[in-house]
Amino acid sequence: MGDKIEIDIYDNIQSKPFRKQPSKPHNGPITKIDVSPNGKYLVTYSQFDSSIFGWKVEDISEGKLEPDNKTIKINLNIFSGKIEQICVSDDKKLAYIRDKRLGIIDMKNNETESNLQSNARYCTFNLKGELIVYGILQNRATIWIYSARTKNGKWVCKRTYEIRKDSKFIGTSRDGKLYFTSNNFIYECNILADKSIRMFCNYENNENNVKLMNKISSNERFTCLKTKNKITIHSIVLDIPIASLDINNDDQIYNFMKQAGLSNLLLPLLGKGAIQNCIMRNCWKRCLDQLKQDNKLPDEYQTEDLPNLPYNIQTTGEYAYGILDGYVWKIKLEEKIPKMDFTSENSDEIIENWYFEIKKMHETHYKTYEYLTTHLLNPYYMSIRYEDISAEKFKGKNMELSHNLIKWKIEVGHKNCENINLRVYKKINVSSDKWNLICNKKGIEKCNICYKPKLLNDNHIILLTTTGIYIYYFNEVIKSISLSYFYYMNLDKYSDDVEKLQDNYKKVLSNQILPLPNYDSFKLNDRASYIIDNKESLLIYGTELLSFAIKEHKLELIDKIYKKCLSHFEKDLGNNRMFLSIISCMMPLLNKYYPEYISKYSIETNLIIDSPFYNIKHQNDNLHLYSFQVINLTQSSKFKMLCYNYGKTYYILNTIQQSITQLTSFFNKISTRTTNSTIPTIIFMVPYIKFINYPQIYKWSSELIKPQPSPFIETINKNIYKTWNGEALINFKWNTYGIYYYMIIWIMFLALLGCFTAVATIPQLYNNEDIRKQLLITSIILGFIHLSFEIRQIIYNPIEWIYDFWNLFDIIAYLLPICTSIIWLQTNDRNDHVIQLLSFSCLFLDIKFLLFFRAFESFGVYFAIIISVGRQIIAFLLVLFIIIISFAHAFYILLLPKSDVSFDKRIIDDDPNNPWNIVPTYNQVFENGSIDSNPFIIQPPNENTNMFIDFKTALFAMYKFLTGDSSALSNWSYSKDPSLAILIVLFSLLIVVYLMNLFIGLLNNAIDKDNDRVSYLIQKAKILAEIELFYLLPNQRRWKTWFPEVIHYYADVDKTREMVKEMISKGEWNTKEFPKLKEDLLDKLNIQPVDEVSLRNLLEEIQKMQSKL
């Protein structure tokens, strides 16, 4: 591994007070500073003497830090390079990189380990104390994860990841998430959860503005990433970038930090600039004042002049750490930044300048900040707790609430205290006592305020009433009060019951964020235009608003939401794809009430991509309509992990593996050159965002009985599967998990089929009592297993289960073998009754075996035709059946014997319908040629002699006549019974000739209509839905790798060109939506753009000419 780095450790004298130390910890200026992930320990490095010093952070809340008892000096004789990076964990493990070599020092027990990696480029500790190292190994970018617990004093590599060649590592966050760039997109990878998400599209992505170790700051709601001179803020909840800040625009950052409340996230990314200097000067002054007040400020700083601002400042969100006179100072930032001013030190000027700056802002820019603050960023707004609300019962009196220069006045009507008005006043300046009325609003009618209102900040007030939660927002620029949030709660009946009111409000306000407005919230407050006009509000509330519009049949509102979602996506294809989820998630309701929107959406979003341009790649394999998700930017390698941990033992095996890999690659290249089979492919996106996702909140018990469906489960619409998008969606599901579970189900059925068929068919088995019992018991167990899934389907949706024709075969195929096996075990006799049951059981089992082939396209198309055609002609078959019954009834009346007959005793009469009179008779012929009039031999009649004795057999006789067998009517003389002849002629002409030929024609038309892949894909979608709901576990239905939010697929360029040309020829190529994107697609496919107006006129002329012919 190379030479070892020599490390000298010196004990510092700590017996004397720190302020009396004769020398500074380092013998030169401090070069680097690093804080542990949870802020428990801090280290400094001085390049002057190659010393590393530890500092106690937790012992002091603010002020000058005390040094730890160890100083580490790294010998400079071996390596000439300087230390490039240092990082430290919470348990005092220090890692550093010098000359691309990684070294680790345990500052608690002086253990050292050097040269763990010889090509390390970056290292950091995560919150769990694990060491994350990025480096280059054998020309492949690799990430190593070392365990926080060492083994025999050595660090153990837990996991290794090879980064894909089209991806580039750019940094990590403090919680251990990795960030990559790939094809102009920034990705976040959580290796612990094995989950990756695409954050945003970086349109200016190149080698110069996305570099390794870019600053990243994140919390549970937002991720802020600095690339070059820009800070992008990505909302984890909405999955879109909500703001992009220019690092050189101090005014923009100033206003955003003031309003948005994200100072703790943005401050670590700002670097040295005017904003950070202003903040640090304020915090530094207040820090010294607080220390002086608490008598903790060292004597050398007890002066009137402000000491110099610390340099080399590093912020962690809550604290800032800086260097002053060779020592580290800890400065508290929490709760101070939102209250301070960046331009003045006077408190009056702070408030006045703030409002002055707001007025100077452009109104449209201010609205952007207003929306972000109101709906997304404001920490108070997003996490209001019940404990924060005053428990004091509101007594129906007018009251005033003031903050800084703003005062809110709540006026309650005198009649039953049901009318509430809001007024906002403002002072000219702090010293003035005069309040000027800015605006007022007639607020809520017919409700009572339950608890004392509360100001969330200058601009927001919350009211808890009997009709729900109201949050009003005061807009300083346009001087208006608007309702920014309303959640309906019907609490009128509890207006006098304090405990009930408290319980209801606690349930709502106990969550981390306020709940989304419910159906009644939109119904009682017309805020649709306010939500639609704002991008972030639409993404938050759009799904509920669209649901409300559909249920209330507001077509204009539905159309506005639909167009706005497509418009937002079109404006920023790379970052705004989540707006399509508003439409996708409402597919079940649209399918129920307005299915034309599904057809419209399917056509308009066909062949699109969530990128500003299309990309054509040459693939060695035929990947047409092969679906995938961009999720695994790293590939785990357990074999290489063993090599790193056990070095020499696995070195030879690693060399062998590399040799095999190189040989395989060599032969693949030769094979590719000889076959010359590179296929150009283009990538498209399935526009059904979040269409296959299940609700994240669930209970195991209820999910096993009646699982919650996804929009995919509830939406069966042909228009979804008419395009490649639907087929690619089905392919992804089938290839990811569907085929594996389907084969398992099939194998289990084959076990049932094999056991039961063997015992029913092979004499050697059913004659052996022991083997017979074992096979029958196994058949019963397997049958009940399959039957249990059918019962779950019946419980889930009994009507839909009955409507599916194949379910009848399933239930019979499972019930008959179970019942037959139980009866055979009980009787222990293979009698006629058991034999009949065995025959029907094997019949349905064999048919069920055949039905498994319907999941495969070669067979499934025919099964789909059978069902779809059967549904179309079922009415015709009903009419035909009624006509057959009518003729059977007529023949029954005509040919019914006049009296009761017996088949055991001959009855002699003149009834032509008597079975004894129509049976064949044999007379004796004498030698002279005469025939004896008395029958010599008479064939006894039976039930089939005259099938019209019973109406059931008469009906069966008509069925035989329909199939061409007229033997049931051949025993009568047609010349003697003209009525019989007339009925036969009528039946043959009407039924056999006319209706049956008509039936064949209808079948041909129905087959031509449904002889496509759409019916097959719908059938396959139902199979996948059944697997998801009843065979996957509840947690499996929430796996992002199986049920991603976004799916992409490859398409053959040649087939895509044919598809587009076909769409153009049919007039289906619509360029009204996404014109630039479709223009780029035509350019990539080398197709000349078409004039849609001329093409449409030409098609209309052709249709008119065809109609005249």
Automatic annotation (TrEMBL):
It is found in: Membrane. GO terms for biological process: calcium ion import across plasma membrane. It holds the Pfam family Ion_trans. One of its GO terms (molecular function) is monoatomic ion channel activity. Keywords: Membrane, Repeat, Transmembrane, Transmembrane helix. Residues 743-1013 form the Ion transport domain. Its main location: membrane. InterPro entries: Ion_trans_dom, TRPV, WD40/YVTN_repeat-like_dom_sf. Gene3D superfamilies: 1.10.287.70, YVTN repeat-like/Quinoprotein amine dehydrogenase. It is a multi-pass membrane protein. GO terms for cellular component: plasma membrane. The chain crosses the membrane at residues 739-763, 775-795, 801-825, 837-867, 873-896, 980-1003. This is Ion transport domain-containing protein. It comes from Rhizophagus clarus. The lineage of its organism: Eukaryota, Fungi, Fungi incertae sedis, Mucoromycota, Glomeromycotina.
